[in-house]
Amino acid sequence: MVATIAFGMGINKSNIRFVVHMDLPKSLESYYQEIGRAGRDGLPSSCLLLFSFGDVMSLNKIIYGEDPALNQSIKAHLEAMLSYCEHTGCRRIPLLNWFGERYPESNCQMCDNCLAASSEQIDVSRQAQMFLSAISRAREAYPAKRIIMILRGSKAKELMAAGDTELSVWGIGKEWSETQWFSLFQSLKKDGSLIQGYPGFSLKLTPRSWEILRGERSFMMPASLMEVLLKTTTEDEEDELFTELVLLRRQIAARQQVPPYIILTDKSLREMCGYHPQSIESLLKINGVGSYKAEHYGLEFITVIREYCESRGIPDSMLKKATPPSRPSKISRTMEVVSYLKEGHNLQECMVRFGFTLDTLLEHLQRYLETDGTLDPEILTSYNPLSPEDTARVRACFRQLGMETLAPVRRALNEEISYTELKLMR
Fold first, then answer.
1. Is 8-86 assigned to CATH 3.40.50.300?
2. 314: closest CA among 324, 304, 323, 322?
3. Domain spanning 240-319: which superfamily?
């Protein structure tokens, strides 16, 4: 759904998971209201604000008028918004402070700054020296994007025309992706190891820059700043039960001629996947399921859940638990799992330590590896239950069909290999 704040943001959808701001909001009040559109059903959701000082220039032309008093108020709001964007600590603190509230914690485990601060730190001193050296060789005349193009050996016309391909630093950073270099740039900027000039956004060195260049101090950064953009829900996209429940909900909604969320929300379906209620009594303990819904189509949902659970020997967890437990931050738990494995423990010990099934553990590892994390392959290969022949078959199917979606791979293998085994091989 693409929306303007004038019309589309007023649509009340309960299961929005991701809000992206393509432009800078003019105030924290606007931003707070707009991000509040996500996660209204209580499930974790993400918000991404794309920000540059070009937005500030555009807003300056639009929002200021002839009333001096009003302009002063507008300026205060815009400066608060800019301060929020540039804040290097927990983002809840300035946001709530603006509304007169105090956030007592220093790390919310939810915003990009807090997640980056608690993630694994790696030594990137060599790459930092490359980046800062490129700024120096370019005589501090270029913005970050141009510096990264030089480091990655770009042969763009503007670089060749300017003689940038003759610089000694041209092409020395090909081993890193553009995203990794931008993550390093942001870390150096936050550290004060470079500054960004205006209006041309050219990068300038600071005294702290020279400490890194001379080798007087090392430079550490989060293993991947992009990890904060990972989905934070605990469910796998290929969750068979959830897919079946969504399909059933759609059929009931079509029959009753109402939107699917009127029947049950995603939150209710996710809770069913976690607790597997197999009786009306258990179903009534699911959030969002009242006596009317249980009476009119509860049996249909129970039938689907029973069929799924009987073939797998899964019990009705609602008989023991009345309410769902609170879930920890997915990203912080992922880093706990990885740290435990890197201490020398195997997958079996990890499952026991955290109380995970193999599927859940693999979700954490997949999430970590997709954010440029690294693991000793032996951790996974030593647990592979497949024969050499089956392993070769799976590899061949992955090469032919890709690995993003496992359902086509499993069909090509005549469903002889389980989803769990395919996830492990992936």
1. yes
2. 304
3. HRDC domain (1.10.150.80)
